[in-house]
Write a structure and sequence with these properties.
This protein is an alpha/beta fold. The protein has five helices and seven strands; from the N terminus they run E-H-E-H-E-H-E-E-E-E-H-H. The protein has a seven-stranded mixed β-sheet. Helix 1 packs across helix 5 and helix 4 packs across helix 5. The longest helix is centred in the C-terminal third of the chain and has 17 residues. The chain is globular and about 50 Å long. The two termini are 19 Å apart. Bound molecules: inosinic acid.
């Protein structure tokens, strides 16, 4: 089965391909099937935004489409930046500007707890929809640590691993990350769906 990835994020393509190829699913880009859909992420939840993206691309391509919506939720920031993680602080900011905004917002704050959330949605042309959510709890550091990764990785610390996401290898991060967990759940859901056991 061919599935279109509703994202231009190369990191996501690699992760999705690796996991879904084991189910015989070929993950392709929008450009591979001649579509280019710009979806406004107007949802208030990760689930809504993932569904918006997957459904729009499925409708344009006429093929099953998969989307992921993710972000960082910080307890002392009322769950923010949350669904606004990619645009926190407005347009034109760098990843560093955005994580520094989070550090500024937590100045003097003792509660540093946070979690990353990922929601995956797959929409099929027959109207069926599969969703899976993964979460990864952690704490926000007082200053950035590590060089790898992207986004808020340098300020997201996992006490058990004693590392930020930016100090982990890709494999270490995937084993515990919100996206890794959501993808593992999604893989099981899709397996059941393709075997017809959930009908
Ligand atoms: P999305 O592409 O709309 O899902 O945007 C998610 C945003 O959340 C990204 O632009 C990052 O800022 C942040 N984010 C999501 N997952 C991660 C992660 O694994 N590490 C660091 N930042 C992340």
């Amino acid at each position: 089965m061919k599935m279109v990835l509703a994202s231009r994020n190369a990191h996501k393509l690699v992760e999705m391909r690796e996991i879904l190829s084991r189910l015989g699913v070929e993950v392709v880009l929008e450009s591979d099937v001649g579509v280019d859909v710009d979806v406004e992420e107007t949802g208030e939840t990760f689930e809504e935004n993932a569904a918006l993206k997957a459904k729009a691309v499925m409708a344009a391509a006429g093929l099953p489409a998969i989307a992921d919506d993710s972000g960082l939720c910080v307890t002392a920031l009322g769950g923010g930046p949350g669904v606004y993680s990619a645009r926190y602080g407005g347009e034109g900011l760098t990843d560093k500007d955005r994580y520094e905004l989070v550090l500024d917002g937590l100045r003097g704050q003792l509660d540093r707890s946070a979690k990353f959330v990922s929601c995956i949605c797959c929409a099929f042309p027959n109207g069926d929809v599969l969703t899976a959510r993964g979460e990864c709890p952690g704490v926000i550091t007082y200053s950035p640590r590590g060089e790898d990764g992207f986004g808020y990785d340098p300020i997201f610390f996992l006490p058990e691993q004693k590392k930020t996401f930016a100090q982990m290898t890709g494999a270490e991060k995937n084993a515990v990350s919100h996206r890794g967990r959501a993808l593992a759940k999604f893989k099981t859901e899709l397996e059941n769906y393709l075997n017809g056991t959930d009908k």
